[in-house]
Design brief:
mainly beta
Length: 96
């Protein structure tokens, strides 16, 4: 097993390209960046190959500074996926 973590910057897509080996990506946590302003809200979204509405982002969670700054997830990806952060132009977030 290998640790995977990535910073999501507002409005920029972060791709996950699966390796040639039959490995799956397990996303277990979304965390708001420490530069978030009080009550600032961001959406962590995903598009992935094989989704019913391919290309349409699906919200994974909503993070709010000072209220819910992290969210436990239990998601497995075995194909190409793109993760994005929307709702703020300055705040970053993290997936691991």
């Amino acid at each position: 097993m290998v640790f995977w973590g990535v910073e999501l910057k507002a409005g920029k897509k972060m791709p996950y390209v699966p390796p040639p080996e039959m490995m799956k990506l397990h996303v277990s946590m979304a965390t708001l960046g420490k530069n978030a302003k009080p009550n600032e809200r961001v959406f962590v979204e995903c598009t992935a190959d094989g989704m019913e509405d391919e290309g349409k982002p699906i919200p994974l969670c909503v993070l709010t500074a000072g209220k819910q700054e992290n969210c436990q997830l239990d998601l497995l990806f075995s194909s190409y996926a793109e993760f994005t952060l929307t709702g703020s132009s300055t705040t970053s977030g993290y997936l691991s």
